[in-house]
Amino acid sequence: MINVRRSQDRGLADHGWLHSQHSFSFAEYYDPAHMGVGNLRVINEDRIAPGTGFGTHGHRDMEIVSLVLSGELAHKDSLGNGTVIRPHEVQRMTAGTGVRHSEFNHSEHGHTHFLQIWLLPKAEGLTPGYEQKAFDPAAQRGRLQVVAEPQGRDGAIGLNADARLSLGRFDGVESLTVPLDTNRLGYVFVVRGQVQVNGHALGAGDAATLDGEAQLTLSQGQDAEVLVFDLAR
Q: Per residue in 200-214, pLDDT tens?
């Protein structure tokens, strides 16, 4: 079964300095039909205005993954990390027993556009942690590159959750078919462009949940970038 959710059907929060689209229930947006998929709980597509950002706030017992699509995101946390996340980089923060952090766009002109992803961790009370890596987009052409997974194999970020995140880029004749474990859940989020997901046409911000599907086929891309999740139920 494939369930497609269109970009325009997502929740929306516009705070002036922050424009955020919520794939699942978050903050003041609540939809009991969209609480998450498996152990994936949040995908927020955020745009932060120049010179603004999220002040210091806390998280617990969550794996938080951030992907910057354009601009830069300055991160500081109670673990002593002070970094800047740029396009083609992936950041993972294990909130565990508790972390406080801030995220700002220090640019005087351009917005920061990024995805904020929350996954349920493998256990509560984990030791807080942080990891950030850059990934070559050329390695994602016509294929899926694993960027986060539990063992951190082959250069991926280590993830304290039963999930695997991959990025792929498809344009023109580029296509890919990969097998899926029908005991798990697949989820495809289109970051940009357009692409066919098992024959369904999706555009930027659209997503598809794959439940019981034996394979995933990505084809007919038009400058498409996709984020693919392999999730525990």
A: 999 999 999 999 999
